[in-house]
Structures are given as C-alpha cells and as structure tokens.
Amino acid sequence: MIGLLKSMATTMKHALDGETFTVEYPDVAPEVSPRFRGVHKFSQERCIWCRQCEKVCPNDTIQIVQDDKRNGEQYNLHIGQCIYCRLCEEVCPVDAILLTQNFEFTADTKDEFVYNMEQLKNVPWYKDIDPLNSREPDRGGWIDEGAGEVDYQ
Fold first, then answer.
1. pLDDT digits (tens, 9 = 90+) for 35-53
2. Is 73 helix (H, G, I), strand (E, B) or coil?
3. Does position 24 have pLDDT exceeding 50, yes or no?
4. CB burial of residue 92 (10 Å; 0-12, 13-18, 19+)
5. What positions does the domain 4Fe-4S ferredoxin-type occupy (predicted)?
6. What angle do CA 91, 105, 73 make, to 5 degrees?
7. Which DSSP category does 123 fall into?
8. Has this prediction a pTM greater than 0.70?
C-alpha cells in the first residue's frame, strides 16, 4: 500500500509541475534528427540499374524487374518490411535511392505498403531537408575534405 501511495505521489508531482514530455503531433511537428532514416526516394533518371540495392538488401525489400536489355522496367519497394538499414543507399554508386526524413505514411492493408517507381519519386522531403546534405558527415570519412567541392549530380 505504501508503494502505491509513493508512486501516485510521484505521478502527481510530475503531472502538476507543468513540463511536457510529449509532442502534440500532428499540430506540432516533432524534431527529427538530420540522420533519421525514413521513406525512400528514388530517382529513375540517376539509376543505372546495377541492382546493387536489390542484392544488398537483407530482407528482400527491393525488387527490380528488368527487360532483356537490362533496362529497368519496374522498381518495387515493400516499405512494410524495410528495416531502414540504409545499405541500399550506401551501396548505390549514383545516389539514385535516398532515405528521406519522411515518416508520415500509413496504409490499411499490407499490400498498400508496396511502392513502385512513381510513388517513390513523389515522396516529399520532410521539412525540405535534402538527405544528400544530411549525409555529409558520413561522406567526409571517405572523401578528402581538402579536395574542394563535391558534386552529387
């Protein structure tokens, strides 16, 4: 009984001090780390269809269908089973796939979590933060910082 009263006293003390620990989402946008990994964004114009992202994916989230000339016909991503490990982004030689900071996506069924090229192309950036700029600390490890500007185009 004493333990119950102590815990209720602690709860009331924190309830009445006026500090909030929660974010009133969606009215107030939460602070997201610059290195947060969210929904993928895909650029078909940059993609060279090397299939490295598909090969490195640990749980077969990415499926690429190619025609006989190795042109990409279909790029599918199952967001529902993605573990956001960022291996697909790291292995891509042309930065055709990037993980955005967008975490706002829902679906009613599991099948609605399968995104195709067009859906991934239209994923908005969260707060207009470009992931290429947020990846700058990672790239500094293997790009000589004294070499001048790095062109991501």
1. 788 888 887 778 888 889 9
2. strand
3. yes
4. buried
5. 38-67, 73-102
6. 50
7. P
8. no
Total number of domains constituting the chain? 1
Does residue 134 sit within a domain? yes
Burial 55-76 (b: 16+ CB within 10 A, else e): eebeeebbebeeeeeeeeeebb
Nearest to 33 by CA among 124, 137, 133, 134: 134
What gap in Å lies between CA 30 and CA 38, rounded to an integer?
14
CATH value at residue 67: 3.30.70.3270
CA dihedral 142, 79, 130, 119 (to 10 degrees): 130
Nearest to 93 by CA among 53, 56, 132: 53
Any domain includes 88:
yes
Token pair recorded at residue 61: 């989230």
Which H helix or E strand runs over 119? helix 117-121
Token readout for 101 is 């900071």
Contact, 130 vs 89, CB < 8 A? no
Closest CA to 138 of 83, 111, 98: 98
**Enclosing domain of residue 114:** 36-140
Report the C-alpha gap between 68 and 55 in whole angstroms.
Answer: 19
